[in-house]
Design a protein that fits this description.
alpha/beta; five-stranded parallel beta sheet; four-stranded parallel beta sheet
Length: 306
């Protein structure tokens, strides 16, 4: 009997088109950081990991110092002291308490820009500039499409980044990724370690989070060159090591030596490779009898009671 695709799976499949639309929208948006500005990017959970990716991309483009923080750990004192020229916040729901508290704390001290899927929420009045990516909103609790679209929007605003594909090229790679079946050894693994360097490290963190959220899986994530400094100890037969972006020299031999399964598509844009990891999370959830649309213990937005 065929299974009706989950809402999450359907939303994952729409990402290439959503990224293309984001690139078009970024071209006409005035609230993006300007070259030379010192910028702080923030969010919670998945949005924080997208912030990490954007911060690394912006610095790689030579456009200015860029830091990324979880909203709950943001150094508000730096903003008060004028250390940042702009704060960029990513919040799908526009209601996340930590993000709203942060925007309120820096209001009037530093210009702020927020990316959201819902312009009818409190973030509308909390930020100085608002980018509405409502076409990327989701029904699923688990974030996939909005997060990657937010990163595509910010990435498109950077222009050309040395050694990084354009958003249009990433969308083509994602369409390819959506047609490729996952290896049986990857589907059958009992543990997954995700690795990445530079902006791909944030994507590795996000891949691990998706696996935990959707499927309750045993996953970890690290900067790729940190793998030999301890994390390799967990690799063994029946466990997978997934590398986003370029494969560091010697790492394939290290994984093979300890019997692990290596997953590496170095020619694939890392954001498109994240789509493959999202598909893995959904497939694993369904194989375990879980509903990827309604993950355990999670809600669409974290709203803290005073």
């Amino acid at each position: 009997m065929s299974r009706t695709p989950s809402r999450t799976a359907a939303e994952i499949a729409t990402q290439p088109a959503s990224w293309r639309r984001a690139a078009e929208a970024a071209a006409g948006f005035e609230g993006l950081p300007k070259p030379g500005e010192r910028v702080a990017v923030t969010g919670c959970g998945t949005s924080w990991f997208m912030a990490l990716g954007y911060a690394a991309l912006r610095e790689a483009a030579g456009l200015g110092e860029t830091d990324a923080f979880a909203s709950s750990e943001f150094p508000v004192g730096r903003a008060a002291a004028g250390s940042y020229d702009r704060v960029v916040a990513i919040t799908r729901s526009g209601t996340t308490t930590e993000v709203l508290d942060l925007l309120a704390a820096v209001r009037g001290r530093v210009p702020t820009t927020a990316l959201t899927a819902d312009p009818g929420t409190p973030v509308r009045d909390a930020a100085d500039a608002l980018a509405v990516l409502d076409w990327a909103d989701e029904e699923s609790v688990v974030q996939t499409r909005f997060a990657t679209t937010a990163l595509a929007f910010l990435r498109a605003g950077l222009g050309e980044v040395p050694g990084v594909k354009s958003v249009a090229e990433a969308a083509v790679d994602a369409e390819l990724a959506l047609t490729e079946p996952l290896e049986e050894a990857v589907l059958a693994a009992e543990q997954w370690t995700f690795l990445g360097r530079g902006w791909a490290y944030g994507l590795a963190l996000e891949a691990a989070l998706k696996m935990r959220e959707a499927a309750g899986a045993w996953t970890e994530a690290y900067p790729a060159l940190e793998y030999r400094h301890g994390p390799i100890a967990i690799t063994a037969p029946g466990r997978a090591t997934w590398v986003f972006g370029a494969l560091p020299e010697g790492l394939a031999a290290d994984v093979a030596r300890v019997g692990g399964t290596l997953v590496s598509r170095a020619g694939l844009d890392p954001l498109a490779d994240l789509v493959r990891a999202q598909c893995l999370a959904v497939a694993l959830a369904e194989s375990r009898g879980l509903d990827p649309d309604r993950p355990r213990n999670l809600t669409r937005s974290v709203i803290l009671t005073p």
